[in-house]
Please model this.
Amino acid sequence: MKALVALILLVQLPVHKAVPAAPPAPLGCDDPESEAAAEVAVSYINGHSHHGYKFALNRIENIRVLPQGLNNDIIFLELDLLETTCHILSPTPLANCTVRSFTQHAVEGDCDVKLQKLDGKLSVLASKCHSHADSREDVLQLCPDCPLLASWNDTEVLTTVTAALNDHNSKTADAYLRLLEIGRANIQYEPAHIVYVEFAVAATNCSAAEAGDNVEACQLLPDDQSNFGFCTATKVVRPSQDLRVDCQLYGHQVPTPDSQDTSAGLVPSVVQGFINHNLKLSHNNPVASESSSSEFPTSMLSAKSVAKRAVAAVAQHDKVPHPVGFVPPPPPCPGKIRHFKI
Ligand SMILES: *[C@@H]1O[C@H](CO)[C@@H](O)[C@H](O)[C@H]1NC(C)=O
Ligand SMILES: *[C@@H]1O[C@H](CO)[C@@H](O)[C@H](O)[C@H]1NC(C)=O
Ligand SMILES: *[C@@H]1O[C@H](CO)[C@@H](O)[C@H](O)[C@H]1NC(C)=O
Model:
């Protein structure tokens, strides 16, 4: 062991001579400072998304800090996110939103975010994201009967959404609801044939009875009264036909100054051929990634710091006896996975 330490130190020595002013150790992905930056970034991403669901942090992939001067840093973050069950228009705070489970066919988001930390205050300068569903093979391998995501223009999906909305509107005494967008749709074939859909809705200025007379005249409520909501529906096709619908209106939401008006980007639509909302539509700023390739040129830096920490660990190991099961410190990046890996 002593010989190994000496060897590592020998290898390290010339490096240290060649670099007189060693830069401060880079931030680790699980450091509290990195987590604080990620929290600001995720809140910004959700606040500026116009479609689909809120995303939650799964892992900090990488972080890089470029000092600009006293108390002024530029921070580049690479984040892995996972879709939650809260629609982007839902007033539920992200902390209370459940991450969509693997068995419901999870959707992952990848984001590059550029932040500035000025006198301790973090702000987002740019964000660039895209999101994609887990592969069908991945889901089926662990769960052969799981309902996979289906395309929004799938005939069965469209008929289920239409039937669900009609069902709700035919039973309610409240406002007649119109479809804003399909959030997701899953279809299961075995052991039963079941179609699951989720969609965002908005209240119109009509009651259901008034809509029956002339649906065309029913308009979405103006911005200062807007009332959005969300419906989930389950249609059993086989063994026996059944339809369950649940719609919740959020009530009028006064937009917070920090979040853009999310409703503005939501136009009633069925986008052809997609199975998930892509964060790219709301976050596509190349400035957010440090280089055009979006690769962090930190391999040298972090490799160095890993080596440094390893030497420290070995040196430490020689000095004090460790309890059985001593685990060496984790590499600084990527950070821990909070939910599951896809
Ligand atoms: C969010 O969760 C907290 C803690 O569990 C709870 O106190 C709070 O009422 C919840 N808020 C909403 C809007 O669900
Ligand atoms: C809803 O608004 C439209 C447009 O302003 C109007 O023409 C229509 O009469 C309204 N319907 C009801 C039931 O108030
Ligand atoms: C769904 O949209 C895609 C892309 O536009 C198209 O190729 C496909 O035929 C459509 N499917 C149905 C069932 O309409």
Summary: The chain has six helices and nine strands. The domain at 32-138+291-300 is CATH 3.10.450.10 (Nuclear Transport Factor 2; Chain: A,). The longest strand covers residues 53-69.
